[in-house]
C-alpha cells in the first residue's frame, strides 16, 4: 500500500485519537485499550513498510501518548505525586533522551570554552566572576579557606536566597527555549563558561582540591539540574522548529506540556542543592574527606540514576505491560 493512501485511510482515526489524548473526547478504559491495540497495528504496518517515514515517528509518539493515558486511567487510585515522579517523568525523559545528550554535549563544550578562556586570558575570571568576588576569594585561599565565601550570612537566609536564585536560572534556561532553543543555548553558554573559568581559577591558585570538596557538595544537584533544564528548553525550541506531522501550534502545546513536566522534576533537586549549599558547604573543609566524597558521589548516583538509568527501566517495564496487553 502506498504511504499516501495509508495516511488518507487512517487520518480521521488518528486525529480522533489526538482528541482523546488532549481530553477533548472522553473514553472509558476498555475503549482506550481498543484504540491503543488498533493504533499498535497501524504502527507495526508503518514500521514494516515505511520504517524511515515521518508517519512512523508520528504513530510511535501517538501510541506512547495514548498508552500513558490508559495507564493513568487504570492507576487513578495511585498517589498522583508519586506517579508523576515514578512513571510520567521517566517516560518523558526516555522519549526525549536525545535532547538530554545534546544538553550535556553543549554543556561540556561550553565549560571547556570557559576553561580555555581562563587559561589564555588571566583577566577572564575577573570579567566573568567579578573583581570583588575574585579578590575576596584570593584572600580566602591565602588564609587556607578556599570556600570561605560560602560561610557568610545566616544558614536559613542563604538557603532561601540560593534556592530562589537557582530556580530563576533554571526557569530562564527553560523559558528561553521559546526562541527556538537559541536563548537556552545562550543561557547555558553563560553559565557553563562561568563554571569552567571558576574551576580553573581555583586550579590556577592551587586550591582546586579544597574548592571541589566544597563546591561539588551542592554543585552536583545544581549543575546536573541546570543541564536538565537546558534539555527542557531544547525540547521546547524543537517543538516550534520541527512540528513534524502536527500543526506548529499543536506541536508547541505538546512540547510545552512534556518539557514543563520534566522541568518540574528538577525543582526538588534544586531545593536540595540550596539546602546543602546553605547548611553543609560552609563546613566543607572541616568535614572528613570521606564524608565529602560520600555526599558528592551519593548525589551524583541519585540524580544520574534518575535521569540516565531509571527511564530505561520504566520504559522496559511499560513495554512489557504493552506486550502483555496486546497478547
Counted by DSSP, the helix tally is 12
Structural class: mainly alpha
What is the residue-mean pLDDT, rounded to a whole number? Answer: 86
Q: Could you describe the largest sheet, including whether it forms a barrel?
A: none
**Helical percent range?**
over 70%
**Extended strand count:** 0
Q: End-to-end span in angstroms?
A: 26 Å
- Give the helices and strands as they follow along the chain: HHHHHHHHHHHH
Task: Assign an overall shape.
Answer: elongated
Ranges where pLDDT stays below 50 over 5 or more residues in a row are none
Strand fraction band?
A: under 5%
Spatial extent as radius of gyration: 24 Å
Q: If you had to describe this structure to a student in words, what would you say it looks like?
A:
It comes from Chryseobacterium geocarposphaerae. It holds the Pfam family SpoIIM. InterPro entries: SpoIIM-like. The protein has 327 residues and is mostly helical. Helix content is 82%, strand content 0%.
Notable characteristics:
elongated, 12 helices, mainly alpha, 327 residues
Care to give the gist of this entry?
By secondary structure, this protein is mainly alpha-helical. It is 82% helix and 0% strand. This is Membrane protein SpoIIM required for sporulation.
Map the helices and strands.
Blueprint: H1 3-21, H2 29-49, H3 54-74, H4 80-95, H5 97-120, H6 124-129, H7 131-142, H8 155-175, H9 182-204, H10 208-241, H11 248-279, H12 289-326
Pfam families: SpoIIM
Protein name: Membrane protein SpoIIM required for sporulation
Organism: Chryseobacterium geocarposphaerae
Amino acid at each position: 500500500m502506498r504511504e499516501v493512501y495509508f495516511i488518507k485511510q487512517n487520518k480521521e482515526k488518528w486525529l480522533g485519537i489526538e482528541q482523546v489524548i488532549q481530553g477533548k473526547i472522553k473514553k472509558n478504559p476498555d475503549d482506550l485499550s481498543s484504540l491503543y491495540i488498533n493504533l499498535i497495528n497501524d504502527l507495526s504496518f508503518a514500521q514494516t513498510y515505511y520504517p524511515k517515514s515521518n508517519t512512523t515517528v508520528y504513530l510511535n509518539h501517538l501510541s506512547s501518548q495514548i498508552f500513558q493515558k490508559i495507564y493513568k486511567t487504570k492507576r487513578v487510585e495511585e498517589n498522583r505525586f508519586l506517579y508523576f515522579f515514578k512513571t510520567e517523568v521517566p517516560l518523558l525523559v526516555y522519549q526525549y533522551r536525545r535532547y538530554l545528550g545534546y544538553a550535556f554535549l553543549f554543556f561540556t563544550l561550553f565549560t571547556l570554552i570557559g576553561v580555555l578562556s581562563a587559561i589564555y586570558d588571566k583577566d577572564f575570571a575577573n570579567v566573568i566572576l567579578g573583581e570583588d568576588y575574585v579578590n575576596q576569594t584570593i584572600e580566602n585561599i591565602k588564609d587556607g579557606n578556599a570556600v570561605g565565601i560560602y560561610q557568610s550570612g545566616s544558614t536559613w537566609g542563604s538557603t532561601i536566597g540560593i534556592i530562589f536564585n537557582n530556580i530563576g536560572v533554571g526557569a530562564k534556561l527553560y523559558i528561553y527555549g521559546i526562541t527556538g532553543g537559541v536563548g537556552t543555548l545562550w543561557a547555558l553558554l553563560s553559565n557553563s563558561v562561568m563554571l569552567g573559568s571558576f574551576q580553573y581559577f581555583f586550579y590556577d591558585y592551587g586550591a582546586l582540591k579544597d574548592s571541589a570538596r566544597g563546591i561539588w557538595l551542592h554543585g552536583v544537584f545544581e549543575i546536573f539540574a541546570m543541564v536538565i533544564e537546558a534539555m527542557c528548553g531544547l525540547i521546547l525550541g524543537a517543538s516550534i522548529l520541527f512540528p513534524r506531522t502536527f500543526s506548529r501550534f499543536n506541536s508547541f502545546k505538546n512540547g510545552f506540556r512534556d518539557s514543563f513536566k520534566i522541568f518540574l522534576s528538577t525543582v526538588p533537586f534544586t531545593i536540595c542543592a540550596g539546602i546543602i549549599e546553605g547548611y553543609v558547604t560552609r563546613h566543607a573543609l572541616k568535614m572528613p574527606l570521606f564524608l565529602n566524597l560520600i555526599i558528592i558521589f551519593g548525589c551524583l548516583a541519585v540524580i544520574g540514576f534518575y535521569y540516565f538509568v531509571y527511564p530505561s527501566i520504566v520504559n522496559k517495564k511499560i513495554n512489557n505491560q504493552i506486550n502483555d496487553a496486546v497478547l
